[in-house]
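README: folding subset

This subset contains proteins for which both the sequence and a predicted structure token string are available. Records are stored as plain text. Below is the entry for Pyrroline-5-carboxylate reductase (271 residues), shown exactly as it appears on disk.
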Amino acid sequence: MTTIAVLGAGKIGEALLSGLLNSGRGAGDLLFTERHPDRSAELTARYGIAGVEPAEAAKRADVLVVAVKPQDIEPVLTELAPVVGPETLIVSLCAGLPTSLYERRLAEGVPVVRVMPNTPMVVGEAMSAISPGSHATPAHLALVREMLSSVGEVIEVPESQQDAVTALSGSGPAYFFFLVEAMIDAGILLGLPRAVAEKLIIQSAVGAAKMLAETAEHPVILREAVTSPAGTTINAIRELEKHGVRAALLAAIEAARDRSVELGKPHDSAS
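--- output ---
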């Protein structure tokens, strides 16, 4: 059985470990690293997985999942460089960081797969986009797809599209949470108790998402089915268009894409 080590056991790292366990992998085939001793002890107690230092993880694991914040990557690479060889698969979950960074800083021939997941991983409903580096083979991609399928859906895209993926689905849950928050506030404004507004909107969001996923209908068709002539919905949509909600979303997602590009720029030509 392949040994997998998750470097950085935050929410995403923990969610992946939990998903791998639930998919049938044994705790003995998993490792994690965590800077805070209390957090490390908590995770070991909860899952039975050993917490180790990054260098030990690199020596023992066949797959290293790098799940640290992008700004923390340099010390991690410095620690890994002397101990990682081409037999180890690197799976990067760091927003904005190109596969070329790992290929440049680690041993010649190290296979790297770049991944953009999102936070619904914590409930097993992630959307993860994967892209191979120069030395990653179809077998490496199949292994990463299998791992990530334990916590949601997986799609393969060219690495040139990863900044767009980051803006759209990586940050995407935040846009939905923002919209739900605003709609709950609207319910309160209209006189509903907060608990009632939350129940109405959250279940509406769940149902709408399920319709999109299961009917395969275009969202325009589903929206039009709710929009009766001279009815309540068309009046609401008129106000959304009047206030530029569609344009604001386009601009917001472009801004997120630009920030993802900025995160990767310092590493484009780093030595």
